[in-house]
Amino acid sequence: MKLIQELSAEERRWQPDPADWLKEQDNLAGDKTHASVQHAHRINLDEACEIRDWTHALGVSEQELRNAVAVVGDRADRVREFLTRRY
């Protein structure tokens, strides 16, 4: 499995959006509220389950995720763009 940073622009275009993946996980878990789905475009580093889900979805370590959020903020689209350009 390639890390998102190793993918070409064409390959990234066809990758699922991590926010969609998180919504699917919420639906499968069945115990999440609609509010958590609404916030899927933000990365909450105070929740272990979100750290796990975002690191999986973005193909990065927890430290890489924390560093990216520290640099560009908690918006998932900005974090994804930062990680893609950085690597």
What does this structure look like?
The chain is mainly α and 87 residues long. It has one domain. The protein is built from six helices and no strands. Helix 5 (62-72) crosses helix 6.
Q: What letter string, H or E per element, gives the SSE order? A: HHHHHH
Overall mean pLDDT = 76
How far the N terminus sits from the C terminus, by CA atoms, comes to 16 Å
Total domains: 1
Radius of gyration: 13 Å
Question: Tell me about the biggest sheet?
Answer: none
Backbone structural class: mainly alpha
Helix content: 55-70%
| Low-pLDDT sequence parts | 32-38
Protein name: DUF3606 domain-containing protein
Pfam family, one: DUF3606
Organism: Variovorax paradoxus
Labels describing this entry:
single chain; 87 residues; mainly alpha
How would you sum up this structure in a few lines?
The protein has 6 helices and no strands. By secondary structure, the chain is mainly alpha-helical.
